[in-house]
Design brief:
Blueprint (H helix, E strand, L loop, with lengths): L43 H26 L10 H27 L15
Helix pairs in contact: 1-2
Organism: Myripristis murdjan (pinecone soldierfish)
Main location: cytoplasm
Subcellular location: Cytoplasmic vesicle, Autophagosome; Cytoplasmic vesicle, Secretory vesicle, Synaptic vesicle; Early endosome; Golgi apparatus, trans-Golgi network
Protein backbone atom coordinates (compact mmCIF):
# COMPACT_ATOMS: atom_id res chain seq x y z
CA UNK A 1 0.00 0.00 0.00
CA UNK A 2 1.36 3.41 -0.99
CA UNK A 3 1.34 6.38 1.35
CA UNK A 4 -0.86 9.33 0.46
CA UNK A 5 0.76 12.33 -1.18
CA UNK A 6 1.23 15.42 0.85
CA UNK A 7 1.91 19.03 -0.07
CA UNK A 8 5.37 18.85 1.43
CA UNK A 9 8.48 18.50 -0.73
CA UNK A 10 11.53 16.38 0.25
CA UNK A 11 12.99 18.63 2.96
CA UNK A 12 9.74 19.62 4.62
CA UNK A 13 9.17 22.71 2.46
CA UNK A 14 5.57 23.34 1.54
CA UNK A 15 4.79 23.78 -2.16
CA UNK A 16 1.65 25.90 -1.58
CA UNK A 17 3.52 29.11 -2.61
CA UNK A 18 4.57 27.79 -6.03
CA UNK A 19 2.76 29.52 -8.88
CA UNK A 20 2.35 27.80 -12.20
CA UNK A 21 1.31 29.23 -15.52
CA UNK A 22 0.05 27.46 -18.60
CA UNK A 23 2.19 27.32 -21.67
CA UNK A 24 0.87 28.90 -24.82
CA UNK A 25 -0.90 26.49 -27.13
CA UNK A 26 1.57 27.18 -29.96
CA UNK A 27 4.72 26.84 -27.81
CA UNK A 28 6.72 23.76 -28.76
CA UNK A 29 9.34 24.18 -26.02
CA UNK A 30 12.09 25.56 -28.23
CA UNK A 31 13.54 29.03 -28.40
CA UNK A 32 15.16 30.64 -31.43
CA UNK A 33 18.41 31.30 -29.61
CA UNK A 34 19.28 27.62 -29.34
CA UNK A 35 19.34 27.29 -33.14
CA UNK A 36 21.52 30.35 -33.74
CA UNK A 37 24.95 29.48 -35.11
CA UNK A 38 28.00 30.98 -33.50
CA UNK A 39 30.52 32.65 -35.81
CA UNK A 40 33.04 30.15 -37.23
CA UNK A 41 36.41 29.78 -35.55
CA UNK A 42 39.18 30.06 -38.12
CA UNK A 43 41.89 27.37 -37.61
CA UNK A 44 44.92 29.55 -38.37
CA UNK A 45 47.50 26.91 -37.39
CA UNK A 46 45.93 24.31 -39.68
CA UNK A 47 45.78 26.79 -42.56
CA UNK A 48 49.45 27.69 -41.99
CA UNK A 49 50.37 23.99 -42.02
CA UNK A 50 48.36 23.47 -45.22
CA UNK A 51 50.15 26.41 -46.83
CA UNK A 52 53.51 24.97 -45.80
CA UNK A 53 52.61 21.54 -47.22
CA UNK A 54 51.36 23.11 -50.43
CA UNK A 55 54.56 25.11 -50.95
CA UNK A 56 56.93 22.26 -50.08
CA UNK A 57 54.95 19.85 -52.28
CA UNK A 58 54.99 22.31 -55.17
CA UNK A 59 58.74 22.76 -54.82
CA UNK A 60 59.36 19.00 -54.75
CA UNK A 61 57.13 18.45 -57.79
CA UNK A 62 58.99 21.13 -59.75
CA UNK A 63 62.39 19.73 -58.73
CA UNK A 64 61.25 16.18 -59.52
CA UNK A 65 59.95 17.23 -62.93
CA UNK A 66 63.22 19.03 -63.73
CA UNK A 67 65.21 15.99 -62.62
CA UNK A 68 63.02 13.69 -64.69
CA UNK A 69 63.29 15.91 -67.77
CA UNK A 70 67.06 16.03 -67.47
CA UNK A 71 67.32 19.79 -66.97
CA UNK A 72 69.16 19.11 -63.72
CA UNK A 73 71.96 16.62 -64.22
CA UNK A 74 72.10 13.87 -61.58
CA UNK A 75 74.47 11.05 -60.91
CA UNK A 76 71.71 8.56 -60.01
CA UNK A 77 68.62 9.09 -62.23
CA UNK A 78 66.67 6.38 -60.35
CA UNK A 79 66.28 8.80 -57.42
CA UNK A 80 64.17 11.27 -59.39
CA UNK A 81 60.88 9.37 -59.21
CA UNK A 82 60.78 9.26 -55.35
CA UNK A 83 61.23 13.05 -55.24
CA UNK A 84 58.24 13.43 -57.54
CA UNK A 85 56.12 10.94 -55.55
CA UNK A 86 56.93 12.58 -52.20
CA UNK A 87 56.14 15.97 -53.73
CA UNK A 88 52.73 14.75 -54.85
CA UNK A 89 52.01 13.15 -51.46
CA UNK A 90 52.87 16.39 -49.66
CA UNK A 91 51.12 18.63 -52.18
CA UNK A 92 47.71 16.92 -52.14
CA UNK A 93 46.66 17.45 -48.48
CA UNK A 94 47.98 21.00 -48.54
CA UNK A 95 46.03 21.84 -51.68
CA UNK A 96 42.88 20.13 -50.37
CA UNK A 97 42.80 22.03 -47.07
CA UNK A 98 43.74 25.35 -48.68
CA UNK A 99 40.87 24.90 -51.14
CA UNK A 100 38.43 24.29 -48.28
CA UNK A 101 39.77 27.33 -46.40
CA UNK A 102 39.45 29.52 -49.49
CA UNK A 103 35.88 28.44 -50.23
CA UNK A 104 34.90 28.81 -46.56
CA UNK A 105 36.35 32.32 -46.45
CA UNK A 106 34.37 33.27 -49.57
CA UNK A 107 31.20 31.81 -48.03
CA UNK A 108 30.46 29.14 -50.64
CA UNK A 109 27.62 26.82 -49.70
CA UNK A 110 28.75 23.49 -48.27
CA UNK A 111 32.17 24.67 -47.13
CA UNK A 112 33.06 25.69 -43.59
CA UNK A 113 36.09 25.95 -41.36
CA UNK A 114 34.71 22.97 -39.42
CA UNK A 115 35.88 20.73 -42.29
CA UNK A 116 39.52 21.59 -41.54
CA UNK A 117 41.06 19.70 -38.60
CA UNK A 118 42.23 22.12 -35.92
CA UNK A 119 44.57 19.72 -34.07
CA UNK A 120 42.84 20.27 -30.70
CA UNK A 121 43.56 24.00 -30.40
Amino acid sequence: MMPARSNVLGGGVSNNKVKYSRLAADDDGYIDLQFKKSPPKVPYKAIALATFLFLIGSLLIIIGALLLAGSIKVEHPDRTIPVLIIGILVFLPGFYHLRIAYYASKGYRGYSYDDIPDFGD
